[in-house]
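>> received
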Amino acid sequence: MKRTLSADKLQMITQHTQERIDRGEISGSVSLVAQDGKLLYAKAQGYANYTRKVPLKTDTIFRLASMTKPIIGVAVKIKVEDGVCTDARIALGAVAATPVRAPGAEEALIGKELTDEVIVKASEEAMNSCHPISDIRASAEYRKDMIRVFTKRAIKQAMECYN
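>> returned
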């Protein structure tokens, strides 16, 4: 049975993002949620330019200057039903020529209650699945460790949508 996110669950994205903006953790965010090619949610919150109070729009173009290139990137999507993870996708960026999935980390989550122990195991699987290079911005070892740290954080943040 295919299920889509309820309006209440999508509203939680808005609330969570606004809380982070209000706490000064981020200046803004553009969030998009799609399923089966259909856009379910699109919302811009906060500022594209905080000092001039220029609001973000859903079509705002984000530029990466040479000194602000990411060292790593992690994206997590989980589906939880009755406290058990029924589906997971974990993507890693800046650890290969193109973004890659971490299937071992995904498998470590699926079918399990997302306890701290399970999340740590998944984050270690993600770390062990990538083979980054060392360059001027970061060593391969540092990138691998950051994959572990950020995978754990991303899973916990994704779980907040279900609590």
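>> The chain is about 35% helix and 25% strand.
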